[in-house]
Amino acid sequence: MTYETIVHTVNTAFAEEFEVAPEKLLPEAHIKNDLGLDSLDIVDMIIVLEQAFNFKLQDRSAVANITTLGELYDFISKLQDLHA
Asked: Strand, helix or coil at 71?
């Protein structure tokens, strides 16, 4: 899976599941401050992304350190590399 596909899939999930306007979905966007997700949304986000990318996060606490969309893209990219 290409990095561009990861970006597109994550952005689509945010737009559809959390009703985030597409123009806000930038790599530097802060997930909580800019996109408005709270801690319950983060749990939902993990589930949505696990389904979208067909993997299970063994360490969900690792996601707690992710603050921007760019960091999330990179995190998923590294997970994809591990499962390739």
From this structure: helix
CB 36 within 8 A of CB 20: yes
Q: What is the pLDDT of residue 80?
A: 79
Return the pLDDT at 21: 95
Q: Which two tokens stand for residue 61?
A: 């606490």
Is 81 one of the annotated active-site residues of the chain? no
Structure tokens at 37: 């997700």
- The domains located in the chain, with CATH, are 3-83 (1.10.1200.10)
**Residues in a beta bridge with 30:** 68
pTM for this one?
0.89
Q: Are 50 and 83 in contact (CB under 8 A)?
A: no
